[in-house]
Amino acid sequence: LGGGTPPEVTAMAAFIGNAASALLHVPAPKSVQAASDPLPLLPPGLRLFACYIKAHRLYLEGAYEQSYGVVLGAFAMVDTLYPIPAIYLHLAAVMSLMALRRTDEARQHVLAAWDIARPDGLIQPFGEHHGLLGGMLEAAIKPAWPDDFKRMIDITYRFSAGWRRVHNPSTADDVADNLTTTEFAVCMLASRDWSNAEIAEHMGFSVNRVKECLSNAFRKLGVSSRKDLAQFMLA
């Protein structure tokens, strides 16, 4: 953008670049990295979504407490509920809280997101974040809302196929594309050093089912141990 570009347009361009970078898990362009924080110049609804992008980026960097703090700060600064960014913010909270093993708090946020989403059928964000939520959809949504959970999984498969086509070649990563969503969720937790018993308790099924998921994943991915899983998982 040229020097005479209105600051609001520059802010919007930075927002779009940051959003694409965070959601695709690829490095931001240098022009976006050098841009000033667009937050103050965005309209209120987009400002909240920009907070979600910031929280997502911090999660990818492993700054889980900071990521969760951004979510809490975003909710504290608004008086009006903007449903879609609110759903995304709650899901960002789930991601970081699961990474911190604060599962009870994570469950509260996923159910808060679902309370907002369910009346209007706004389930797309849940499908987009399935793997990053660390089995929380299986644990919190599937038992009471199996049909909605199935729709989320259908979205996950469609979304993930396109996501990997962009992400994998851009990063040289090899995020797995041949696991079921349950196998992927189990492997996400196993790659973060959760024990089989912890995974089983969280996801609401038996330890033997966890072992079966891991065994199938090892076979499909051509690995022999849990420590090898991380290279095929999302951040």
Walk me through what this model shows.
The chain is an all-alpha fold. The radius of gyration is 18 Å and the shape is globular. The longest helix is centred in the last third of the chain and has 26 residues, at 146-171. It has helices spanning 7-24, 30-34, 44-60, 64-76, 83-99, 103-117, 124-128, 136-140, 146-171, 181-190, 196-203, 207-221. The model has no long low-confidence stretch (mean pLDDT 87). Helix 3 (44-60) runs parallel beside helix 5 (83-99). It has one domain (7-177).
SSE order and pairing:
Blueprint: H1 7-24, H2 30-34, H3 44-60, H4 64-76, H5 83-99, H6 103-117, H7 124-128, H8 136-140, H9 146-171, H10 181-190, H11 196-203, H12 207-221
Helix pairs in contact: 1-3, 3-4, 3-5, 4-5, 5-6, 10-12, 11-12
